[in-house]
Design a protein that fits this description.
Length: about 290
């Protein structure tokens, strides 16, 4: 599938900004299941300072806000070809060892509720994959998807205790319990094209866990599915803090409003799929001619 993305974030300030830096994880990479055809970034009221790959191998852009501005706009758009690999990303790669993703963070650390749920599941040593699918179902059963009940600082244990949360909370609970069971797990931020619509509410979050013989496998707990061709991976990390689309520091210019516009559109078959279909059609045509 060929997906076209347009993501626009606008900040307005009551007072002029004195100084501000923002770290952006908004640029996807070509990896298993996706190929970036083109990707462009534009800024109004800010300029790029640095472009690098961080310790999680995420493409990271550091921008500085222009002093005195009352408005900052960050826009990215591009085209990504995707394929359905049943959520399988494959072998471990990057700067960090696999065991790094066994360590908990403040946001994923299990408390009594998470430990009790982990004990109910127990790890199936014969099939880690079955354990993870059961975990995915259990988290969604215990936590209703509901907006407005949590924020970026909500801990997994607190969200599970409340029984409410969004995709970020589902991912954190899943990750924390998977690690508690001895399974490496990480957080993923990216885009999901919801069926029957182009305009999306926000960027999406899910989890990946490491399975022997398969490698990293994705689990979208909120939608109870392994990511397919409707998903675009952008950044990964031990939790939301490491993979967040935009984070930063600011001096002066108290934020007055934040608006986000996101569109993800299906542009049809990817180039490789089209070439494959054309090749098959040409072969059938040649066969028909030779038989005639």
């Amino acid at each position: 599938m060929r997906l076209a993305v347009h993501h626009r974030t606008k900040y307005t300030f009551r007072e002029p900004v004195v100084h501000a830096l923002q770290r952006l994880h908004l640029t996807p990479k070509s990896t298993s299941g996706q190929t970036v055809v083109e990707w462009n970034m534009r800024y109004t009221g800010a300029h790029e300072e640095l472009h690098y790959d961080d310790h999680n191998m995420n493409t990271t852009v550091l921008i500085a806000v222009d002093p005195g501005v009352h408005e900052v706009v960050i826009e990215c758009e591009g085209i990504v070809d995707t394929a359905d690999n049943a959520g399988v990303i494959g072998r471990h790669a990057g700067h960090l060892p696999r065991w790094h993703f066994l360590s908990q963070t403040k946001l994923t650390k299990p408390g009594p509720k998470m430990k009790a749920l982990a004990q109910q599941l127990a790890r199936n040593e014969d099939s880690t994959l079955d354990t993870l699918h059961s975990l995915c179902s259990a988290v969604l059963e215990e936590m209703e998807y509901q907006t407005g009940e949590t924020d970026a600082e909500t801990r997994a244990e607190d969200a599970l205790a409340a029984g409410k949360g969004v995709c970020q909370d589902h991912a954190h609970v899943f990750i924390g319990i998977a690690r508690h069971l001895g399974i490496p797990a990480r957080y993923v931020s990216g885009y999901l094209m919801m069926d029957e619509r182009v305009e999306q509410e926000a960027s999406h979050a899910w989890a990946e866990a490491y399975v022997d013989d398969l490698g990293w496998v994705g689990f979208d707990i909120s939608n109870k599915i392994c990511p397919d061709e409707r998903y675009i991976r952008v950044a990964t990390g031990r939790d939301y803090g490491e993979a967040a689309p935009i984070t930063g520091i600011q001096l002066g210019g108290m934020s007055d409003s934040l608006t986000v516009e996101l569109a993800v559109e299906n542009r049809g078959a990817s180039q490789s799929q089209s070439q494959g279909a054309n090749g098959q059609a040409q072969a059938q045509s040649q066969q028909s001619q030779s038989q005639g």
